[in-house]
Amino acid sequence: MSYIIRPWALKDLKAIMRLIRESASLHKALDQVKTTPEILRGDGFREDTAFGCLVAEVPPEQRSKEGDTIVGYQFHYLTYCTWDGHILFGEDLYVLPDFRGKGIGSSLLAKAAKIALAKGCSQIRFISASWNQPATDFYTKLGALNVTIGDNWNLCSIEKEHIRRLAEQARK
User: Are 16 and 30 in contact (CB under 8 A)?
Assistant: First the structure.
């Protein structure tokens, strides 16, 4: 199978949105997808982009059954660890089921690793669903450590309404 890994372009927006929705559906969370093509365009192509995105593209003769040539993506952004410096956070990695096991996911992460090194990052961090054992096995094979188990950390999130309430409490 031949494919290339490259940074996304505006022309990929529709394909990326389709894959995001497919990934969310796999997680039984399609109703939680609030991003739109307009949001992705605004955040991903402005001068100070909020994130980077890599795509896996196959030649037209190897397209998916649905006719798509963009068969995977990897979203990432820079963050910071007060203990260890710059970190590349892998927000999302998805490869169409028919294209898994062909090295595409590994190639997407390898390209993200090059970006991480170029940006001076000490780590790549990401979240994997606890029920998705194939994903956990894939990441472990690449050298990932489950810090939830090893370091006893919990991932927490403050959502929109609670953000508003918290902000209202801020001292002026």
Answer: no
The active-site residue, picked from 3, 73, 94, 139, is: 139
Evaluate whether 81 touches 59 at the Cβ level (below 8 Å).
Answer: no
In the chain, beta strands by DSSP E: 4-7, 52-57, 70-81, 85-95, 123-126
Q: Tell me: the pLDDT tens digits for 33-91?
A: 999 999 999 999 999 999 999 999 999 999 999 999 999 999 999 999 999 999 999 99
> pTM of the entire structure?
0.91
- CA atoms of 79 and 88, how far apart (whole Å): 6
- Structure tokens of 100? 């898994």
Q: What is d(CA 46, CA 68) in angstroms, rounded to the nearest whole number? A: 26
Told to judge if 139 belongs to the known catalytic residues of this protein, a careful annotator would answer yes
pLDDT digits (tens, 9 = 90+) for 132-151: 999 999 999 999 988 888 88
Q: CA–CA separation, 37 vs 138, rounded Å?
A: 29
**Residue 105 contacts residue 95 (beta carbons within 8 Å):** yes
Q: Do the Cβ atoms of 16 and 33 come closer than 8 Å?
A: no
Q: What are the pLDDT digits (tens) for 108-135?
A: 999 999 999 999 999 999 989 889 999 9
Of 1, 104, 106, the C-alpha closest to 62 is 1
